[in-house]
Amino acid sequence: MPPVIRMLALPAVLVAALDSPVIAHAATDRSMGLYVAKGMDTNLPEIPGRILEGDLRFDPTHLAAVSVLHLLPPPASWQPLFDRSGVPATRIGLEAVLAKHEGLQQHAEAAAAVTLRFGGWRIGMVRLHPMLGMGLSYAAGEPRYEDPPSRGDSDRRYRLQLFNVYELAWRLDDPQSRWEVITRIHHRSGLYGIVAPRGVGSNFLGIGLRRSF
User: Fold this and answer.
1) Based on the number of CB atoms within 10 Å of its own CB, is 202 exposed (0-12), middle (13-18) or buried (19 or more)?
2) Which of 40, 58, 83, 133 could make an S-S bridge to 115, C-beta 3.0–4.6 Å?
């Protein structure tokens, strides 16, 4: 079986194991998750193609993170737009993340983002929920692993950067389900020079578990 197929099949298997009828309960709007992620020697636009090709390149650095997500109904003025776009179950949310880095950089990181979580698609017994998030991230130490500025002082690193989340959550297609497996990209960058100089940033590819309460 190709590595990419195994990677995509793993979340579905984990969801099925966790969400047995014995432990399934009603999901709510608040959830907490844990995930681990490994640094990638790949620019953000290249990651989808590398995943499809099975050509992921990792560096010896990683993070462990805890996240808290609170989902909210979208503003009334937004709902018609979501309905016309074919994603009527879209929710906005607020996510807070605390992470600890080890390896090529060793520091804590705090981040917060506004998210959009889509109603998703059913694939067999599993429902797949995409989520996008954007906010700010602050590194409590010097993020030495991250790319330096494309121009200027190549030894300088920037603690405050844009924080982006690109996530797929895998949950049993059951309204009583509380558990889901999350696969996500944990991204920091300068937002093309707005938050920090062009070229700075990092990408981490991760997997974890989330439980709603």
Assistant:
1) buried
2) 133
Residue found under tokens 């330096």? 148
How sure is the predictor about 150, in pLDDT bands with cuts at 50, 70 and 90? low
- For the stretch 91-95, contacts whose Cβ atoms lie closer than 8 Å and that sit 24 or more positions apart, written own/partner, are 91/29, 91/116, 91/117, 92/116, 92/117, 93/69, 93/117, 93/131, 93/133, 94/69, 94/70, 95/67, 95/68, 95/69, 95/70, 95/133, 95/135, 95/165
What is the chain's alpha carbon radius of gyration, rounded to the nearest angstrom? 18
Which of 209, 168, 212 shows the shortest CA–CA distance to 17? 209
Give the list of residues 6+ apart from residue 2 with CB closer than 8 angstroms, or none. Answer: 54
List, in order, residues 6 or more apart from 202 with CB less than 8 Å away.
Answer: 39, 143, 145, 146, 147, 187, 188, 189
Question: What pLDDT, on the 0 to 100 scale, is given for residue 8?
Answer: 40
In this structure, the number of other CB atoms found within 10 A of the CB of residue 164 comes to 21
Residues making up the chain, counted from first to last: 213
Looking at mean pLDDT, say which of 4-13, 56-65, 66-75, 154-163 comes out highest. 56-65
